[in-house]
Amino acid sequence: MSEPSQISLNNALSPMMEEFLYFNDYAMTMLLMIWLSVMATLLAISTTKLYDVSPNDANHLEFMWTLLPIMVLMFIALPSMRTLYLLEDQNPPHLTIKTLGHQWYWSYEYSDYENVSFDSYMTKEQDLTNGAPRLLEVDNRMAVPMKSTVRLLVSAEDVLHSWTLPTLGIKTDAVPGRLNQLIFTTMRPGVFYGQCSEICGTNHSFMPITTESMPMKQFENWITTLLN
């Protein structure tokens, strides 16, 4: 969960989020190098007379200032294409969860099990336990088994919503009459928070998403309690 003074991105929960963080750091390094090069050039021009303003042709210079931007774009484009490829190249899912956006709560259905479905409402402030985050905690969390591939089918019943979990690096719109698919894997246990990222009406700010990643044995016990 983000902290008030945090300047970096959230720690990665999934392998794809780790790829996003690596690419973000790589792209920021490239931008820093470009900025330093431009500032050094401007400083050199403004403090020295090591330049020529004569109207002579400078073919080598024109070639270099055309080649260098192309190289910079290639250095950024190739890693991004690799990340996009990994985003689509996913393993077959072990578990399928259907989530439906409503005004203003989420409902979840574990379609691999019979009669396992529930609604997830935001916990009111007066009902919060000690340490629970305000406007982010819910009464029923979506639970997923750790280190298992999960497929999430997202849709909406009324208006546009958006199912977003920053620590997983996933976000997809919930569109009425349409199914969107997310595939993810959690790598460690814990409780992770997100919110609806599409303005969906008056109580848009009160539509949190809470996901709990747990070991497989604990997940099986959790499913068993729901079935009973």
From TrEMBL:
Domain Cytochrome oxidase subunit II copper A binding: 92-225
Protein keywords: Copper, Electron transport, Magnesium, Membrane, Metal-binding, Mitochondrion, Mitochondrion inner membrane, Respiratory chain, Translocase, Transmembrane, Transmembrane helix, Transport
UniProt superkingdom: Eukaryota
Positions of the Cytochrome oxidase subunit II transmembrane region profile domain: 1-91
Cofactor notes: Binds a copper A center.
Cellular compartment(s): Mitochondrion inner membrane
BP terms from Gene Ontology: ATP synthesis coupled electron transport
Cofactor: Cu cation
MF annotations from Gene Ontology: copper ion binding; cytochrome-c oxidase activity; oxidoreductase activity
Topology relative to the membrane: Multi-pass membrane protein
GO cellular component, one term: mitochondrial inner membrane
Catalytic activity: 4 Fe(II)-[cytochrome c] + O2 + 8 H(+)(in) = 4 Fe(III)-[cytochrome c] + 2 H2O + 4 H(+)(out)
Family annotation (InterPro entries): CcO_II (IPR045187), CcO_II-like_C (IPR002429), CcO_II_C (IPR034210), Copper_CuA (IPR001505), Cupredoxin (IPR008972), Cyt_c_oxidase_su2 (IPR014222), Cyt_c_oxidase_su2_TM_dom (IPR011759), Cyt_c_oxidase_su2_TM_sf (IPR036257)
Record-annotated membrane-spanning stretches: 21-45, 65-87
Family statement: Belongs to the cytochrome c oxidase subunit 2 family.
Main function: Component of the cytochrome c oxidase, the last enzyme in the mitochondrial electron transport chain which drives oxidative phosphorylation. The respiratory chain contains 3 multisubunit complexes succinate dehydrogenase (complex II, CII), ubiquinol-cytochrome c oxidoreductase (cytochrome b-c1 complex, complex III, CIII) and cytochrome c oxidase (complex IV, CIV), that cooperate to transfer electrons derived from NADH and succinate to molecular oxygen, creating an electrochemical gradient over the inner membrane that drives transmembrane transport and the ATP synthase.
UniProt-recorded name of the protein: Cytochrome c oxidase subunit 2
